[in-house]
Fold these 2 entries.
Entry 1:
Amino acid sequence: MTNTTVYPSHYINGQWVKATSSETLPVHDSSTEELMATVPSGTAAEAEAAVLAARKAFDSWSALPVETRAAYIDKVAAGVKARTEELAVAIAREVGMPLKMARAVQVGGPAWHWGNFAKIARNFEWEKKVGNSLVVREAIGVVGCITPWNFPLSQITLKIAPAMVAGCTVVLKPSEIAPVNAMILAEIIHEAGIPAGVFNLVNGSGPEVGEVLATHPEVDMVSFTGSTRAGKRVSELASQTVKRVALELGGKSASLILEDANLEAAVKGTIGACMLNSGQTCSAHTRMLVPASRYEEAKALAQATIAKFGIGPSLEETSKLGPLVSAAQRDRVLGFIKTGIDEGADVIAGGAEPPKMDKGYFVQPTILGIKPTDTLAQEEIFGPVLVVIPYKDEEEAVAIANSTIYGLGGAVWGGSDERAIQVARRMRTGQVDINGGPFNANAPFGGYKQSGNGRENGVYGFEEFLEFKSLQLKPVAV
Ligand code: NAD
């Protein structure tokens, strides 16, 4: 596959509009390093045109009956399903997740969410009597959506689907590193016949296009998923126009294994939750906390488990772990592994030598035994790197779990669910998996502390895009 797809346009006001600048952003296949596509590098003026189109469309779109909007959203769900293979291959190539998993997680998930948000809007209690008031829920307005590259279609879907079905109009700036899936989605939305201006897409860099969305007075809300560093910048800028800001940021989640846990299940579960998408998952369980008395046993189990995680090109069916998204990400992760080793880590598996692959941004899956004060116990690495931290008692384990600036995901493994739940209640984090409890796409997902302040998924993610309005009624004389 050597063909490069050139996308020359942005999607503004219901049309593909040729980019004004000839500057483009390259998209690389992370397994082969080939240039697979280019998208235009948008300008501030293009971002503004998209914002104004969204503003113009808002009044009529938000006034439509919910059923009409939900029917459009269902059409998008059907379109995503129909183009599953094309989307899965694009994401497998641009992100690097093995194709089989990309089909299920990167496309199956979003297709389900589109349909689910249509259902949620249909069943939602849009108004309610409270004393002498009628409390009405309304769309917040124009929403600027800024998204990252690791689960690109999911992160886009979790913003624009609930926002649009709620009655908002949107301007999307997808990640410049994995934007191809967004271009396919824009085609699907166009084919679904969604009215002009309701959905707009401008590709480009964060500082050029993203910052227009964060600052523009006609944008009522900015919904941002990405790094804590960029999230802080977006918040700062958005404060000048008092927009609502929803932030879904980084993580350094702990998998806390209690001494009476089934250690084998806990170690396997933790490694699975760390290595998904080659560790490029915001809620990845990247710190495994084990009782010091069981450290050697945990180490042996970890070595046996990681040996089964074969790396390979994302389009090969046998690959369990693909490459990292880019050369820059690979180099960053290798830098972290070196720092860990320099600080005296116990190298349980892997290391900083690149695996023997002809091409692609591969890193060996790596497991390092470290102390809670080491750099790798604090920093989000965003690669296939698990750190194992021994602790002496439950108090210390909880303290270590809560000792980073983040609070996104986590797990507790214990002899009983009751005991694990007790410990989970003490963790300052948005989600905790109890003894391997699976992900629930209707449960709220989001962060404590510097992992953010928004919630996505299900009705919780839908309500983020609504305002409250209270209509005070004169009590009826009896
Ligand atoms: P990033 O912060 O570099 O980029 C995310 C998006 O923000 C991109 O579209 C980028 O162009 C844009 N951006 C960058 N600077 C900006 C600025 N000054 N103004 C406006 N927009 C700007 O993050 P990334 O590398 O794409 O993604 C990885 C990060 O995302 C990790 O930290 C990960 O934990 C986080 N993440 C969080 C969640 C969550 O739900 N909490 C989900 C996925 C990823």
Note: Residues 99-123 form the longest helix (25 residues).
Entry 2:
Amino acid sequence: MYSLSGKLTNIAGVGQTVAEKLTTKNLLTIKDLLLWVPLRYEDRSQQKLIVDLVKDELVTIKAEVTSVSNQYKGRRSMQRATIKDNSGSLKLIWFNIPYIKDTLQKETEYFFSGKLNDRGMMTQPKIEKVSDDTTHTNRLVPIYSLVPGIKPGNLRRYLKEIVKHLDPIPDQLTEKFDLLSLNETFKHLHFPDNQNLTIKARERLAIEELLGLMQHSAEIKQQWKDSASAHLIEIDQENTIPKLPFILTAAQQRSIKEILIDIKSNTPMNRLLLGDVGSGKTVVAGVAALHTLQNNHHVAFIAPTQILAKQHLETLNKLFPKINIQLLTAQAKFSPSTKPTLYLGTHAVINKLQEIKPALVIYDEQHRFGVEQRSEISKLTFRPHALTMSATPIPRSLMLTIFSHLELSVIDEMPSGRKPIKTWLVSEKKRTDSYNWIKQQLQESGEQVLVVCPFIDPSEHEAFANVKSATEVFADIKSHFPDQKIELLHGRLLPDQKNKITKNLFNRKIDILVTTPIVEVGIDLPAASIIIIESAERFGLASLHQLRGRVGRAGQQAYCLLFPSSHSSEISQRLDIFTKTNDGMKLAEFDLQNRGAGDLFGTDQHGFDQLRFTNWTNVELITQAKKIFDKLKNKVEKVNGATKEASLGCGAAKEGALGYSQATWKSIIGPHLATPTAN
Ligand code: ADP
Ligand code: MG
């Protein structure tokens, strides 16, 4: 019998040499080999009589050997055999497999899996002794990715041996939740009785994987709460929301309420504020900041770019004139203030957190959702409340798993009066016409145009030959719009140059801004009403939606023109969906399905790609895993008896309820499967 942690040399037929070859693929234990998942299955399950054979059809025949021969031609050889069943006889032929002659015994029955060729023979059929439990023939046969030096048939043989003699794996999920046992799972992963069972097996492993993720998130959540206490922020109930120049939407009010409840506690908040571009997240964060400052604590506000930091400065000053704000830039260095202060800046602020000791940290437009925060904040000697804002919607499947360590507030409603942005997919032929139309618009309204390009400079790379760079587009636009003021803004400009351009932009001294997406994120230009996106196919739909949200912010009718630089039906279908959909969540779901989660979040930090069995679009399965997880969690809470907020992270109880201790949890499915690494 084999145990999961057993060495490969334990396997009958595997010696030191073979084990070393498997090591080259990081296969060290029995469990590793069990998780060497077939790439596909070849269907050799169809049994036929010789008389019924049809050309090119993969089948298995059960027949007796009547003759077998081996013929050498120089260093090459050819093997022939004749077989018969009750219906007729058939010629078989192999090349360069001389041992066939010694393997096949005359007057003995075998399974032969293969295809009939033009000349009515079967070439290179697989052979196996007749039995009820075959490995290579007469079934769905697993096809593995190659391990150098090991014959595919042998790999299959080792796995068959393991699966057949695997110790029962302790596993309480099976009985409690009516799932395949892990032993059955591994059997059907490698030697399924039918296709349906391969799916079941993979789903069972996906559940294992998902529970690992959920567990991991739950642990992070608990650690966050346990590690240190934050400042309790007293809320002035009379003046929860200050006087503002506009009426907050119901969603904004709800979000503010949720945040204020969180910070009115010593348990540190870790909340994500989600809202489409333009939904008004800044003011929500501002209200939380205001209360914190009124409690005589500092606040840190971290923006992704200098431009945005400056912009927040202006906005916050306007909305909350009483707040004392210090902008931290390369020029303006941190100086400790005795007055409660909101320190505003880019990433550099993070390095100052220990000195600032803010009671609240606000991250704007964070794409990494807490990864950085955790590692940065975990180094601090105190624990602030943390609020992360993002416009990238998080599909439900992700919210239930990798993001479940975060509390969630959603602004699912736009300030009134916003009009949907008219979006068009424009062909190159229509470029001049479009420019003429834009010219007319500019003359009529005096508004601004943004032109976004994927890169600054032309790329040498062949794959990007058609992609228009910002510098090229800048030249092109200048020649088309001789009377307009046009500027080029990108990340490589010196801070002074950038400052000048942004200032002119806000003062409406620039009509058309050509730029790259990095600079653009989150910027609020009320007068911008047209956005052109060059090489639009290079962006995910969620990113396009972000970019599109830069225009029409003052409630005017806005337009988005997409110019693709390469063409396929897939591209036009994707962009077409974009022109017709104004719902950020739908676009994110579409991205998730078609481009994967990594593309959606631009990060591999969360272990998206470490998942081997989970398909992020299978919401049903993920919901099922969540239910299981919650039931297990309840159970743990019961085991813990009186303890209020039990978590799965508590040693013995967890072991009792799940059947897995932390150690076994990881060792059953392996750290590479169970949990993505934190930080
Ligand atoms: P985002 O959620 O994209 O960060 P902002 O916070 O920058 O959006 O808000 C976009 C614009 O809408 C800002 O000019 C802001 O002052 C304004 N705004 C925010 N909330 C409202 C509201 N309830 N009514 C009208 N305008 C609002
Ligand atoms: Mg914003």
Note: Residues 281-282, 364-365, 522 surround magnesium ion (ligand 2) (CB under 6 Å).
